[in-house]
Amino acid sequence: MNQALVTKYPVTDRTLNALEVTLRGCEELIPKEDWLQKLAKSEVTGVPLRIKLGLDPTAPDIHIGHTVVLNKMRQLQDLGHQVIFLIGDFTSLIGDPSGRNSTRPPLTPEQIKLNAETYYKQASLVLDPSKTEIRYNSEWSLPLGSMGMIQLAAKYTVARMMERNDFHDRFKAGTPISVHEFLYPLMQGYDSVALNSDLELGGTDQKFNLLMGRHLQAEYGQDQQCILTMPLLEGLDGVDKMSKSKNNYIGIAEEPNSMFAKVLSISDTLMWRWYTLLSFKSMADIEALKKEVEGGRNPKDAKVMLAKEITARFHSAAAADAAEQDFINRSKGGVPDDIPEVTLSGAPMGIGALLKAAGLAPSTTEAGRLVDGGGVRVDSSVVSDKGLKLEAGTYVVQVGKRKFAKVHLA
């Protein structure tokens, strides 16, 4: 335990409630006793704790899987603590090797700047922007210079660095490891020194880097931060972690109708895990709802509530209500009020070519498969003939449950 925390501060009900909020849905809290004392000290002194989340802006958009740690930040923010949204503009130039079996190419400064702006704008849909400290780690990493970098590198051994799973596995497999990759966990750890953080959050795949912050804070004579790791959210399939490459994700910038419908598509089992990690409802309220479902209430009711909460967070309550009505219309075979309109020429046009031209199928081959599967409707009638040709006119074309277009064919 930190020397500064040896003196026991009184643990009140309020402190224990804050600990419960911290632990909700988390994978690991290291060390829990230190965090409890930090919370107790904050309550006695009235000084908010400094809670850090670092994100490298490696892509312009984030999905709701990324918001698991942001939700935790918001919960701690609501308890009155100071959250720090750290944009890793310097560390992005290195490239985080976490969980990778090859070197990740670094981003250009221009890419980082554009991505960072989008990241923070989207993160602000979860965090309270007026109570969020935004920092860039280039503030202290660039002034460190070559001398400072060498001094920093002297505070950790190669043997300890090679204990990290991805480095160990790559070395064993004979896969190249560049020296600059060793700098990434050092620089992330140094961020904690520069910010004098009390708690750092991250995914389970970041544990090594988070612990580096504790080590370096001790080296620099600071109180050591605690570590809170959050699980990786399973995607729509309930199997793999949410990922764009797996196409099992919900982007937080997705339009409301799609977002709502995707939440409703998850399994009844996965729904409760999403409630724990994504909802702002209290655990007591969630448990009460779960008991209602176990007692006979339709689980779809609970899923609709979750879908509306998530859609409202990233859009508005009105948009969530409209998305619910849109879903009801679609489930009844009705046509949504707001569907894209497409004007095409070339009548008579084959159904396959029309679906491709209207953006409802990626190719005529796939369009044919959709027709064979009974997934295509024209003016509410199922199309069974791949050779169908449509004359000039206006048609409402539907593919599956969610894709619609009003096609004006000339």
UniProtKB/TrEMBL annotation:
<keyword id="KW-0067">ATP-binding</keyword>
<dbReference type="Pfam" id="PF01479">
    <property type="entry name" value="S4"/>
</dbReference>
<feature type="domain" description="RNA-binding S4">
    <location>
        <begin position="349"/>
        <end position="410"/>
    </location>
</feature>
<keyword id="KW-0547">Nucleotide-binding</keyword>
<dbReference type="GO" id="GO:0006437">
    <property type="term" value="P:tyrosyl-tRNA aminoacylation"/>
</dbReference>
<dbReference type="GO" id="GO:0005524">
    <property type="term" value="F:ATP binding"/>
</dbReference>
<comment type="subunit">
    <text>Homodimer.</text>
</comment>
<feature type="short sequence motif" description="'HIGH' region">
    <location>
        <begin position="57"/>
        <end position="66"/>
    </location>
</feature>
<dbReference type="InterPro" id="IPR024108">
    <property type="entry name" value="Tyr-tRNA-ligase_bac_2"/>
</dbReference>
<protein>
    <recommendedName>
        <fullName>Tyrosine--tRNA ligase</fullName>
        <ecNumber>6.1.1.1</ecNumber>
    </recommendedName>
</protein>
<dbReference type="InterPro" id="IPR002307">
    <property type="entry name" value="Tyr-tRNA-ligase"/>
</dbReference>
<dbReference type="GO" id="GO:0005829">
    <property type="term" value="C:cytosol"/>
</dbReference>
<dbReference type="InterPro" id="IPR014729">
    <property type="entry name" value="Rossmann-like_a/b/a_fold"/>
</dbReference>
<dbReference type="GO" id="GO:0003723">
    <property type="term" value="F:RNA binding"/>
</dbReference>
<dbReference type="InterPro" id="IPR036986">
    <property type="entry name" value="S4_RNA-bd_sf"/>
</dbReference>
<feature type="binding site">
    <location>
        <position position="244"/>
    </location>
    <ligand>
        <name>ATP</name>
    </ligand>
</feature>
<keyword id="KW-0030">Aminoacyl-tRNA synthetase</keyword>
<keyword id="KW-0648">Protein biosynthesis</keyword>
<dbReference type="InterPro" id="IPR002942">
    <property type="entry name" value="S4_RNA-bd"/>
</dbReference>
<keyword id="KW-0963">Cytoplasm</keyword>
<dbReference type="InterPro" id="IPR024088">
    <property type="entry name" value="Tyr-tRNA-ligase_bac-type"/>
</dbReference>
<keyword id="KW-0694">RNA-binding</keyword>
<dbReference type="Pfam" id="PF00579">
    <property type="entry name" value="tRNA-synt_1b"/>
</dbReference>
<comment type="similarity">
    <text>Belongs to the class-I aminoacyl-tRNA synthetase family. TyrS type 2 subfamily.</text>
</comment>
<dbReference type="GO" id="GO:0004831">
    <property type="term" value="F:tyrosine-tRNA ligase activity"/>
</dbReference>
<keyword id="KW-0436">Ligase</keyword>
<dbReference type="InterPro" id="IPR001412">
    <property type="entry name" value="aa-tRNA-synth_I_CS"/>
</dbReference>
<feature type="short sequence motif" description="'KMSKS' region">
    <location>
        <begin position="241"/>
        <end position="245"/>
    </location>
</feature>
<dbReference type="InterPro" id="IPR002305">
    <property type="entry name" value="aa-tRNA-synth_Ic"/>
</dbReference>
<comment type="function">
    <text>Catalyzes the attachment of tyrosine to tRNA(Tyr) in a two-step reaction: tyrosine is first activated by ATP to form Tyr-AMP and then transferred to the acceptor end of tRNA(Tyr).</text>
</comment>
